[in-house]
Design a protein that fits this description.
Blueprint (H helix, E strand, L loop, with lengths): L1 H25 L18 E3 L3 E4 L2 H12 L4 H15 L8 E8 L4 E7 L9 H8 L15 H12 L4 H12 L2 E2 L2 H8 L2 H6 L6 H7 L11 E2 L2 H16 L5 H13 L2 H12 L6 H5 L4 E3 L2 E5 L3 E5 L7 H10 L4 H4 L3 H21 L10 H4 L2 H8 L57 E6 L5 E7 L47 E5 L2 E7 L5 H14 L5 H6 L4 E3 L15 E4 L5 H9 L4 E4 L9 E5 L7 E5 L10 E4 L1
Parallel strand pairs: 15-16
Antiparallel strand pairs: 1-18, 2-10, 2-19, 3-4, 3-11, 4-7, 5-6, 8-9, 9-12, 10-11, 12-13, 13-17, 14-15, 17-18
Helix pairs in contact: 2-3, 2-6, 3-5, 3-6, 5-11, 6-10, 10-11, 14-16, 14-18, 14-19, 16-21
Length: 633
């Protein structure tokens, strides 16, 4: 008995010691004991017929239903969007959507811009002189919701089913669904919600989500009758006009939202609480189908992205720069992370200087994506020394002679915040995001990829009474500095971080990637892609090991346009030796043991290694709480 107890004590001591050493490794305190992330924690999801990957299992299942009913990827994608408006309650009709579609029959890659524009009365002078800021919450934080217009355009041009059919699963969800961790995190734990609980404009949201003064709890059944009624009204508008043809019927639903009672409800609630949006701001809005932007990486991979006003060019510009290095020989160490961070810094600088609504500014995209410009940018990188401040933008105009360089400045280089430092303790994060990203591939290899958002947290914190959907708070993504490309103009779309990555190889669809994460989106998807094509990881490994670095040597996407100037490094995927080497190169390193650098990564590999094979990966770690899902058949 004594011997058994002694052995038990020894085992307990060993377990405790192991846990302590693991924890020390996670925060980067000892290089000899540091425990890096396991090689792979989930199996790859495989299938032959179709695949869906994203954050919400409940939403993805609605797309699965549509595919089983004979719909294509676009039909399923819109069904998932509608379901996200229910189970991911800050995503839906009141936000923005960036969509990328591959039409297999026409062998065509295209994008749909469902990004809203500013009200006519939104000007720099109004916000800076009358309001004194660009608010993050309330009626003055809202621009025109663009999402629903893009749903209609996608269905009309590339879908096969009716709006009524693809909305039905979401209607059923809205009449009673289980509150999961997504709802709990996005409502109960969001700092944005806590800030506005007592605001009068928050009253209609309280009626839906706060029962007896308490937010929804995990496992409860949540009923959203107002949202279900809104979806039914949109479907009914379509049904009434079916005799006029499919496109006309879909247009009727569009007009109900942008020109009918829903538009009036949006304007009424905003103006009631001091907003400046007018009926015409909604009535004149249209989604836009835009051709994608594209580069060829190493002569093998045609990489497509959403064009401006998204930050999609960053993926392509960074890949062009990195093409000049032998990454495989270099390996995933300090040298690689240094080069990646410096290339990202340069692309971020170009984003801030050149990218906004192409209807208002001439963007030298041809120059920015040229191999000659990439070589020039590459020469700006010192392999041994990190950039000490936010870099100046490059000069892509010389490689894009059709575009004239502007005479106005792009704004001052932002001030670096003093809190960029080296520390082992990491940071405490409260979930306050709202972006959703997902992808669908069907049996015919049509592809639908979507990344959409309200902007942050609870959006503006406003739900039009009786309609059940949240309104965005996109206004603080515009610029108020004179001469900046992203400065306010009436009905101008602001620059967006939402984007999707689609890759072709050998003339066939190869991969689709996406993630939430704001400025971190490009950084995350780039590391997944490079892990797969350069470092030989399978798709699940590529996702799980994508959280290496995240540069913040860039201007923030929202007012007041500051820069923190540090390099976030996750101690679960980057070893202590590499961290020390990055510090030696001059990086201001902030260590993150919390695994939250890159949002919620998801990807689908199409017909590789063999035709007829689909492989999918989902992130096991979303902002330190819950992960993504992949469904395949």
């Amino acid at each position: 008995m004594f011997i058994k107890k002694r052995r038990l004590r020894v085992v307990i001591c060993v377990v405790i010691l192991g846990c302590m050493l693991t924890l020390m490794g996670q925060v980067g305190l000892a290089d000899s004991t540091q425990q890096l992330w396991p090689k792979q924690t989930r199996q790859i999801v495989v299938g032959r017929q179709y695949m869906l990957s994203g954050v919400s299992q409940q939403a993805l299942m609605q797309g699965h239903k549509i595919l089983e009913q004979g719909g294509n990827a676009i039909d399923a994608g819109v069904a998932i969007l509608a379901a996200c408006g229910v189970v991911c309650p800050q995503i839906g009709l009141g936000g923005d959507s960036a969509i990328l579609i591959y039409d297999a029959k026409r062998d065509k890659v295209t994008t749909i811009d469902g990004l809203g524009w500013a009200p006519r009365k939104a000007t720099s002078e109004f916000y800076m002189e009358e309001v004194g800021e660009l608010p993050r919450l309330g009626p003055l934080a809202v621009d025109v919701p663009g999402s629903f217009a893009s749903w209609i355009m996608a269905l009309d041009r590339y879908g096969t089913m009716s709006l009524t059919e693809v909305l039905q699963p979401a209607i059923e969800l809205a009449m009673g669904h289980v509150v999961d961790e997504i709802v709990v995190k996005r409502i109960s734990k969001s700092s944005s919600f806590q800030a506005i609980l007592d605001e009068p404009y928050f009253a209609s949201a309280k009626e839906i989500f706060w029962r007896d003064g308490e937010p929804p709890r995990f496992g409860e059944i949540l009923v959203q009758r107002d949202l279900a009624t809104t979806y039914r009204k949109l479907a009914a508008a379509e049904q009434v006009h079916l005799s006029s043809g499919r496109s006309a019927a879909l247009r009727a639903a569009h007009d109900l939202f942008y020109k009918g009672e829903i538009a009036k409800a949006i304007v009424d609630v905003l103006q009631k609480y001091g907003g400046i949006m007018e009926y015409e701001d909604l009535a004149e809005f249209e989604a836009i189908e835009r051709p994608p932007i594209m580069i060829t990486y190493r002569g093998q991979y045609d990489v497509y992205q959403n064009p401006p006003p998204t930050q999609g060019h960053m993926t392509l510009e960074v890949l062009n720069i990195l093409e000049g290095y032998d990454l495989k020989a270099m390996g995933r160490g300090a040298e690689y992370y240094h080069l990646l961070s410096q290339a990202l810094n340069l692309a971020f600088a170009d984003r801030q200087a050149f990218v906004s609504d192409p209807a208002f500014v001439s963007i030298p995209m041809k120059g920015m994506l040229s191999k000659e410009y990439a070589a020039e940018q590459r020469a700006r990188i010192d392999p041994n020394k990190a950039m000490e401040q936010v870099p100046e933008p490059g000069n892509p105009y010389k490689y894009d002679p059709e575009i004239s360089a502007p005479t106005a400045c792009a704004g001052e280089i932002p001030t670096l915040l003093a809190n960029a430092n080296i520390g082992a303790e990491g940071a405490i994060f409260v979930y306050d995001g709202d972006t959703d990203s997902f992808s669908v591939v069907d049996k015919d290899r049509n592809v639908f990829a979507h990344t959409g958002s309200l902007n942050s947290g609870a959006g503006a914190g406003i739900i039009p009474p009786g309609y059940g959907f949240w309104l965005n708070n996109r206004i603080n993504c515009y610029d108020v500095r004179p001469g900046n490309v992203n400065e306010f103009e009436p009905h101008k779309r602001t620059r967006h971080t939402v984007q999707n990555v689609f890759v072709m190889k050998d003339g066939r669809p190869f991969m689709i990637l996406g993630t939430p994460g704001g400025d971190k989106q490009t950084q995350g998807t780039l590391q997944v892609f490079l892990n797969y094509v350069e470092f030989g990881m399978n798709i699940q490994e590529a996702i799980e090991h994508a959280r290496g670095i995240n540069t913040r040597m860039c201007e923030t996407r929202t007012y007041p346009y500051t820069a923190k100037g540090d390099l976030q490094v996750t101690t679960m995927t980057v070893g202590q030796e590499d961290i020390d080497a990055l510090i030696a190169k001059g990086h201001k390193v902030t260590l993150l043991p919390h695994i939250m650098i890159s949002g919620n990564l998801q990807a689908i590999v199409i017909d590789y290694p063999n035709v007829g094979v689909l492989q999918g990966g989902g992130d096991p770690r979303f902002r330190g709480s819950y992960g993504g899902y992949t469904i395949g058949w």
